[in-house]
Amino acid sequence: MTDEDTAREGKGTIFVRAEICKGCSFCIDFCPTDCLEFSKDFNAKGYHYPVLVRPADCNGCDMCGLFCPDFAIYGERWKKLDERRSAGGAPAAARGAEVPAGAAVSVPSVQQYRPADPAGVLTGTHFLDGDHAACEGALAAGCRFAAGYPITPSTEVVERFAARAPRVGGMFIQMEDELASSIAIQGAAWGGAKVLSVTSGPGLSLMMEHIGLAAITETPSVWVDVQRGGPSTGLPTLPGQADMMQAKWGSHGDYEIIALSPNSPQECFDLMIKAFNLAEEYRCPVMFMMDEVVGHMTERVVIPEASELRVLDRKWTQKKPGEYLPFATTEDDLVPEMVKAGEGHRIHVTGLTHDERGYPAMNPEAQDRLVKRLADKIRRNKDKIVDVREDGVLGADIVVVSYGITSRVAISSVAAAREKGLKVGHLRLVITWPFPAKRIRELVGTVRAFVVPELNLGQMVLEVERAVAGRAAVVSVPHAGGTVHEPEVILASIVDVARALEGNKLAEVAS
Q: What percent of the chain has pLDDT over 90?
């Protein structure tokens, strides 16, 4: 179907490359307005191909194109088509049409911060739970594609995204499982979108292979894990913090990620924007490590005007087709530039060890060069990335280290300990990976002991121990999950540590 012979009926139309259609019927099966049918004719391959039989019903939603495995069909709204025509663009025969080598490609020039798109910013004062606030943060950051599979306690994030995204030009797809979801977002990212996937513990385990793929292909992406008690199915609607090590080490091989841990609905909004900015800046998977309590607690969330928010654009290349190498870097900048698939550049994206062209390079030298760069682009910038919040740390004998919902509980425990005359500080990990080992080492000169409460049997406490290196006591306050710590439990640990320090029994405290 062409512009010339398409009647102006309905809100949109379709374009078909009949010669490459395989007659799978996906476009017909998933058409929400039931406006497509197979033609009575055959293409050169012997397949019936789709035709628009009820043009008055077509709204140009492009669900047909979304589900076509061969890019043989796509739908477009008349309004969008007219806008492209007025700008001098004509509709391609189909989405998969090639762009001639050397053709001009319309992409932004350099990576830069800009005000947020007002369409995605729900400015105002709201009462939102953490899941909904995280969704609003993603939309404000420019996320326009999300894929996921329902799993408590994370489902509310994408339920809201599914309702809000179509109003701002975005899309949510519920895939058949977490594996499909975690690969769908990567295709969308290479198509130019900012992307999000959302899950909880069991789903995160399934996604790990594709998180490793995102790491080696340097696909900017944000992964929300609303943690619950585990292992396995565990406690579907109750809190946990036992996915922290999995977030960093869950996929095989050497790579680096960034992980954030909000402790309130307001931070779910604020830090989600930061998560997307970090994903775009470093081209890596960014983990958003919520927990069930933060995800389901409802509090006041203030969303500023779009002009007050700063969103980082992707670092698009300025190179012409033929000059661009998808994974080329310099010594001063270890993060490659990107392009949008289908805009004329030749790209090869593979999970194999690869060279600057993206082509497989199966030798130890290429492995050493690639893997070290994947790590160094984060490690060299960890002082810039690390985010901790400190309260009364200077001059403290004891510092409580916490994150997520546990940090909310620890605040009252620290306050109660101070009322008893104890010199106690609080260090909250806002970004958990990279871990702020440098700051912990700096504190060891004056701090005599660290108390680390977590909703697990001891995970981030291992990082504290590594940074302290035996020069101060480190005490874990574990909790298997299902609920949060009682403030009195953390307080009791602080008091026990203080007594042991007074009696100079550091060995007993550390044990």
A: 80
